[in-house]
Amino acid sequence: MTITAIDTEQPLRVGVVGLGWAGQQHLAAYSGMPGVEVVAIAGKEAELGLALGQEFEVPLVLADWEDLVALDELDAVSVAVPTFLHAPIAIAALERGLHVLSEKPIARNAEEGGRMVAAAREAGRVLDVAFNHRRRGDVQALKQVIDAGEIGRAYHAKASWMRRSGIPRLGSWFTNHEMSGGGPMADLGVHVLDYALHLLGEPEVIAVSAATHSELGPRGLGGAVGVPVDELTSPFEVEDLVSAFLRLEGGGTLVVESSWAAYRDPVDLIDFAVFGTEGGAELVIRGATETPVGEIRVFREGEGSDYSPPAVAGRGHEAVVEEFVATVRDPQRWARHDGSHALTRARIIDACYRSAAEGKEIAL
Q: What Pfam families does the entry give (predicted)?
């Protein structure tokens, strides 16, 4: 393993692979940071690439990720592409000595994620995965309440992200198991799992029991409003709703649910509720990603003791990218940012899918 310090007096040179919504979030965040230079972007959408290149003044607009990773004038790469490409791109970049920021989930499964972490350790480079929802201002405000001991010892929690009609693109890589690795558990549930465990102080998950359902997607129902069926027209091979019961170290429990499509209120819901020995708390975000600040309520013993702590809007991908850049600029932090955190999430999700397939609880 070789660690080479980044010259903080020189611009940090980055490339972005992927031109969709997530890639554009990375691109905008890098472009707004002092001391960072976007050297290249890569993606198959030629017209979009040229437009983004002009808007953000990117010198190189490439079609193939292999050409971007091969560039000598790079220090780091963002990977914002379909999940099946995360591992090959990240591993190739790490082997080139580049730092990597990947979109979630880390990969299609823990085996691929493990190879990414091993590559990061071998190269002595940073591998971070973008979990932007834990950086919401309301999540951070609730975290402060829990960490301050306001609810005592948390012993049970439940969290969800539920959609009515929100299958990202019927017939696309999202609904193809080989390309995606899973449905809403891998897409939305990984966020839910991440912010829930983050709020609870990162307890170890010791066993899971899960069930998956595919009731609407296989019938062509539940597609995101205004999004046509993708040209790939892949069969619907994943779940459209999942529920998981997690046993935590110390006897605690966590229930995680996520759906792309279910007959429920048409407004997306992200929520979290926690029950403790001295109180409880909940966060309710109606409108999900369109609502900058959700409603927080804290419940404690005694009349008039319930309250709603203030919260401000978070900064999402901007904060993710800023933290990644700060980590890359500080070699002392590299070893702690090898992708292990995201790999833990992947192992839990793998266990959930195995539990659903085998109909039994799975120990981790």
A: GFO_IDH_MocA, GFO_IDH_MocA_C3
Instruction: Give the right CATH number for 137-313 from 3.20.20.10, 3.40.50.10860, 3.40.190.10, 3.30.360.10.
Output: 3.30.360.10
Let me know if domain 12-132+318-338 sits in CATH 3.40.50.720. Answer: yes
Give residue 173's Cα distance to chain centre.
17
Question: What pTM value is reported for the model?
Answer: 0.95
- Return the structure tokens found at 4: 């080479």
> What is the SS3 assignment for 349?
helix
Burial tier of 122 (Cβ tally within 10 Å: 0-12, 13-18, 19+): middle
Tokens of 144: 């402060």
CA 338 – CA 334 distance, rounded (Å): 7
pLDDT in tens, 22-69: 999 999 999 989 999 999 999 999 999 999 999 999 999 999 999 999
Phi, psi of 267 (to 5 degrees): -85, 130
DSSP string, 1-38: -------TTSPEEEEEE--SHHHHHHHHHHHTSTTEEE
Cα–Cα distance list, 201 to 51, 197, 211, 248, 254 (Å): 43, 6, 25, 11, 13
* pLDDT confidence band for 8 (50 / 70 / 90): low
Helical segments of the chain, H only: 21-31, 46-56, 65-69, 86-95, 110-123, 137-147, 177-180, 184, 190-199, 316-328, 340-358
In one letter, which amino acid is 66?
E
Question: In the 8-state DSSP scheme, what is residue 195?
Answer: H
CB within 8 Å of 142: residues ≥ 6 apart: 199, 272, 281, 283, 296, 309, 311
Q: If you write DSSP's letter for every residue of 220-257 in order, what string do you get?
A: T--BPTT-PPPTT-----S-SEEEEEEEEGGG-EEEEE
Scan for tokens 């979630």, then name that residue. 104
Backbone angles phi, psi at 219, to 5 degrees: -95, 10
Q: Where are the domains of the chain?
A: 12-132+318-338, 137-313
Residue 357 CB-density burial (10 A; 0-12 exposed, 13-18 middle, 19+ buried): exposed
- Residue type (1 letter), 271: D
